[in-house]
Specification:
The complex is a heterodimer of chains A (about 425) and B (about 450). With about 425 residues, chain A is an alpha+beta fold. Among the domains of chain A are: about 130-160; about 175-210 and about 290-425, Peroxisomal Thiolase, Chain A, domain 1, CATH 3.40.47.10. Helices cover about 35% and strands about 15% of the residues of chain A. Chain A has 14 helices and twelve strands. The longest helix of chain B is centred in the last third of the chain and has 22 residues, at about 300-325. Chain B has a seven-stranded parallel sheet with strand order 9-8-7-10-11-12-13, sandwiched between helices. Chain B has a six-stranded parallel sheet with strand order 2-1-3-4-5-6, with helices on both faces. Helices cover about 40% and strands about 15% of the residues of chain B. Chain B has 16 helices and 13 strands. Chain B has about 450 residues and is of the alpha/beta class. Chain B folds into three domains: about 1-30, no CATH class; about 40-190, NAD(P)-binding Rossmann-like Domain (Rossmann fold, 3-Layer(aba) Sandwich); about 210-440, 3-Layer(aba) Sandwich (Rossmann fold). Classes of the chains: A alpha+beta (about 425), B alpha/beta (about 450). At the A-B interface, helix 1 of A face helix 8, strand 9 and helix 9 of B.
């Protein structure tokens, strides 16, 4: 597939990710997204500039944030004439936003744009129970004093209470971790393999910080200069000592160490046409090649909740005429260590590739030293909608270092049995 | 942004003035500072001097074009906005009487924050000892006048080269104007390099690309703002940890933020490349990044010692290998170093800082003697801030701070913008003939004077 023109990834900016109730406990989504945007504007000299559009979103969102991204733009140094809209595709939000902006640029509908995402697990909206909400609405609708009195008296002490939104799948009532535990057990993913992946994530992220890799990708926020979840000194022994939190009994393998923590943070990516980039003295880091989304039926139990990327990637490879081995870097979002390992195992499995993907041969294995080479969500944290922007900017920078023509694959799983994947090429 | 300190505000009130006067306390006044569009000076400028006053003759047109109303007699009814006394024709100490005769009546008619500029010639270019003595005497007179003046007035000396008096126009205008509010008792030497004409006085840095290190806060942030106000495109540099403040400053001035530690080996190359690819080149480098790790020398360990010298001095040497290379700073470029009065006078507990800032002066002298830079039209100058009201000085204990703040002819601390104005002055094309200058921005501090 060829596109009318190429969209370039020109740079990125994120704020360090914080743990839930950590450094950003008091920061709102709008605060964080604005901060990430301000850093992007400063790095690329865009103050006062009108961009084609800014597209971002949050998974956990207050009702007041109906125009979250537009409000962040208005609070930024971008020209107030820059339009914006919100998207939401669970953890795929940031990557989906990137695909949307890149597509508009490729089609000539925009010359530049920002894709991003933000989430706060700390500043979560609190809602009243459904029964109370209905009674309160009835009270609002009441016109006469008698109606108002009647509606008010209908509210019982037992109706009172608050609800903090949880991370459960609406149709199964199970948390994401519980879903993943089933999938991991089905695929026989071991505790050791998961801990090993988690360890690599922390070590790779720490090493990337040490070599200044993030100096051009990050702007400190509220005193935080590195991801709060990063444990540079973690060891196999420490990870092995953690108790399991998902799954049951002796077969449980998932711990707080090999699962991502709830996090707060925001990320942004600047995209543009080659002409727009040249006019602004910006050298493309990478080209956005193609993107694909997939969904699975996790409700019936037919497939694991977080395995949709396993389906999206082969479709994308087929369209681009590539094999799984044609990549210099793989960025597979570490929702859980077992998510990554299951996905890789599925691609190596002849039965899965034949029965589920309809392929003659398995996609095969990847060279593990090309996977998440500067760390991923296990170490950095995972503010849901912010992960896509983090990954795209990181990969673009890696590919730029590697050189023109290098290739990278992004894979992000999402709630609702969805997955978003994309290919970037070094510029 | 820091404003006039509480005491200055207090003395500005009627009661405050009476109390300060009765107790013999210093009576600082809020200094007149530059705002775009404001007149050069408030009131006529008295011009005079010795003999045929060649400098006044050469500068008259430029002063008038800048909006000054020149007068040769002290007006009866109004206050003077400034004074330019030309002693370039002085041959003998006896000729200094012309200076006294011009200045003495003028000083009684000086307006608030009026600036006195004495113009002379370089003593070392004198043809005889009597002439040299007369020329050197101007420094003593100017510095004494600076100490006698009240109400925010200043006195500075400009030394010019025979036949190249016009090259000093930018310097004289700066010293007359509110841009030099906190520059007092200084000697600025002007050479004979040709000065390009035609810069827009309201945007003297238009079209220039300027790099400011340590731009996230304090003096560096104000340097960025001031260079931007004067028309420059800014590259704001600071350590990654200061990125949040840096982004705010960069966006405020519509520039770019570059998060890089000046001590990293590739800092110079990264800055040069950023300026080249993003902005097409580099015209002005302001080495402002600096730290203090104050301790008595006896208690200073090697880490503290090294970090101060590394950031404040060695990083400049390393970065300049790339920044001053042929593909770095363009011909006609400007380098402005930031030294400190502590580097001149020394300061208890600041041996490492003073070492680094004195070293910067050595760097300045070395660069000024560099023929390669001179051939490319590159000038190198330095500013030496005295007591400036910043977050850094706000942390000094109250009593020490209050003494530091008052020990100068203007009886107050300067503001970061005062340093920034001097940097912007040195960065302009009009100062092509000023190189190797160390301009103190200290209100004529008693330290190291």
């Amino acid at each position: 597939m060829t596109t009318p023109r190429r969209a370039a990834v020109l740079g990125g900016n994120r704020i360090p990710f914080a743990r839930q109730f950590g450094a950003y406990a008091e920061a709102s989504n709008q605060d964080m997204l604005t901060a990430a945007l301000e850093g992007l504007v400063a790095r690329h000299g865009l103050a006062g500039e009108r961009l084609g559009e800014v597209v971002a979103g949050a998974v956990i969102k207050h009702t007041r944030d109906f125009n979250l991204t537009r409000e962040a733009v208005l609070g930024s140094s971008l020209a107030p004439t820059t339009p914006a809209y919100d998207v939401q595709q669970a953890c795929g939000t940031g990557l989906e936003a990137t695909i949307l902006v890149a597509n508009k640029i490729a089609l000539g509908q925009a010359d530049s744009g920002v894709a991003g995402g933000v989430d706060s697990a700390s500043d979560a909206p609190i809602v009243v129970p459904e029964r109370l909400r209905r009674k309160l609405l009835r009270l609002t609708r009441a016109r006469t004093t008698a109606e108002r009195a009647k509606a008010a008296l209908a509210i019982r002490p037992t109706d009172l209470g608050i609800q903090v939104p949880g991370a459960t799948e609406p149709r199964t009532g199970m948390t994401m971790g519980q879903h993943m535990a089933i999938t991991a057990e089905r695929w026989g993913i071991t505790r050791e393999a998961q801990d090993e992946l988690a360890l690599a994530s922390h070590r790779n992220l720490a090493a990337a910080y040490e070599r200044g890799f993030f100096d051009d990708l990050m702007t400190p926020y509220l005193g935080l200069t590195r991801d709060e979840n990063l444990r540079p000194g973690t060891t196999p022994e420490k990870l092995a000592s953690l108790r399991t939190v998902f799954g049951e009994g002796d077969t449980a393998t998932m711990t707080a160490g090999n699962s991502t923590p709830l996090s707060d943070g925001a990320s942004t990516v600047l995209l543009g046409s080659p002409e727009w980039a040249a006019e602004h003295g910006l050298a493309p880091l990478a080209w956005f090649v193609d993107g694909e989304t997939a969904a699975v039926d996790h409700v019936s139990g037919d497939e694991g909740l977080l395995l949709a990327p396993a389906y999206a990637v082969p479709r994308l490879l087929a369209r681009q005429g590539l094999t799984l081995q044609d990549f210099d870097y793989y960025e597979i979002h570490e929702a859980f260590a077992s998510t990554v390992l299951t996905t890789l195992a599925a691609w190596e499995d002849p039965d899965f590739c034949r029965d589920r993907l309809g392929l003659d041969a398995p996609l095969g294995s990847i060279e593990r030293d090309r996977l998440n080479v500067t760390g991923s969500s296990l170490a950095a944290g995972h503010p849901f909608a912010a992960t896509g922007g983090r990954v795209v900017a990181t990969l673009a920078r890696l590919l730029h270092e590697k050189g023109a023509g290098s290739r990278g694959l992004v894979s992000v799983c999402a709630a609702g049995g969805q997955g978003v994947v994309a290919i970037l090429e070094g510029a | 942004m820091p404003r006039a300190d509480g005491y200055t505000t207090f003395v500005g009130t009627g009661a405050g003035r009476r109390i300060a006067s009765a107790l013999g306390l210093p009576q600082p006044v809020p200094l007149r500072r530059y705002t775009p569009g404001a007149p050069l000076v408030e009131g006529p400028v008295l011009v005079g001097g010795h003999g045929d006053t060649p400098a006044v003759t050469a500068l008259r047109g430029g002063l008038t074009a800048a909006g000054a109303t020149l007068t040769e007699t002290v007006p009866d009814g109004s206050r003077l906005g400034g004074v330019v006394v030309d002693l370039t024709a002085a041959q003998d100490p006896a000729d200094l009487e012309s200076l006294r005769a011009t200045l003495a009546p003028a000083l009684k008619r000086l307006g608030r924050c009026a600036h006195v500029v004495v113009v002379g010639r370089h003593p070392e270019q004198a043809t005889g000892v009597a002439q040299r003595a007369a020329r050197r005497a101007l420094e003593g007179i100017t510095r004494s006048v600076g100490k006698e003046l009240r109400a925010g007035a200043t006195a500075n000396l400009v030394l010019v080269t025979e036949g190249a008096e016009a090259a000093a126009l930018g310097t004289v205008l700066f010293l007359l104007s509110a841009r030099s509010a906190y520059v007092d008792g200084q000697v600025v030497r002007v050479g004979d390099a040709a000065v390009p004409a035609g810069a827009d006085p309201s945007a003297p840095l238009a079209g220039k690309v300027a790099v400011v290190t340590g731009a996230a806060r304090g003096i560096g942030a104000d340097i960025a703002r001031t260079l931007h106000r004067d028309g420059a495109t800014l590259v704001c540099v600071d350590v990654p940890a200061a990125g949040a403040h840096l982004a705010t400053v960069a966006n405020e001035v519509g520039g770019t933020a570059l998060q890089v530690d000046v001590t990293s080996p590739d800092a110079g190359a990264r800055i040069a490349e950023h300026a080249r690819t993003r902005h097409g080149g580099l015209d002005v480098v302001v080495h402002n990044a600096g730290i203090t790790r104050d301790k008595l020398l006896a208690n200073t360990d090697s880490d503290r010692w090294a970090s101060v010298l590394e950031v404040n001095l060695r990083s400049i040497l390393r970065m300049d290998e790339a920044l001053l290379a042929k593909d770095g700073l363009r011909d006609g470029g400007r380098v402005v170093l930031v030294s400190s009065v502590a580097g001149i006078a020394g300061n208890r507990g600041q041996s490492s800082y003073a070492a680094s800032k004195a070293g910067v002066i050595g760097l300045l002298d070395g660069y000024a003697a560099d023929r390669g830079l001179a051939r490319r039209g590159v000038t190198v100058n330095a500013v030496a801030p005295g007591f400036i009201e910043t977050e850094m000085t706000a942390r000094i204990p109250l009593a020490t701070r209050e003494v530091g703040r008052r020990l100068n002819s203007l009886a107050q601390g300067g503001l970061p913008v005062d340093v920034a104005e001097t940097v912007a002055f040195l960065a302009a094309d009009a100062q092509a003939a000023v190189t190797g200058a160390l301009v103190r921005v200290c209100g004529q501090s008693l330290l190291g004077a």
